[in-house]
Design a protein that fits this description.
Arc Repressor Mutant, subunit A; 5% strand
Length: 76
């Protein structure tokens, strides 16, 4: 899998996901990600998750709550 560089904002979301999933063994709600990462808009949060998904860092099932999964290990 090709590894893509993340922007600092995408990296913040990814690191939050890693910590949350590691601690609770499930993914957070999008609103929880938005609040924890200090993102002003729900849509921007979705955009950052979509970017992480396109770059291969996470996978999601649409219209399912708590369905974010980390893909493998990345060097970031």
């Amino acid at each position: 899998m090709k590894q893509y560089n993340l922007t600092q904002k995408q990296l913040n979301v990814y690191n939050y996901l890693k910590e949350y999933i590691g601690k609770y063994h499930q993914s957070p709600y999008v609103r929880e990600i938005q609040k924890a990462c200090g993102i002003n808009s729900y849509k921007i949060t979705l955009d950052r998750l979509s970017a992480l998904e396109k770059k291969g860092y996470i996978s999601r099932r649409l219209n399912k709550h708590r369905s974010i999964a980390l893909n493998g290990t990345h060097g970031q």
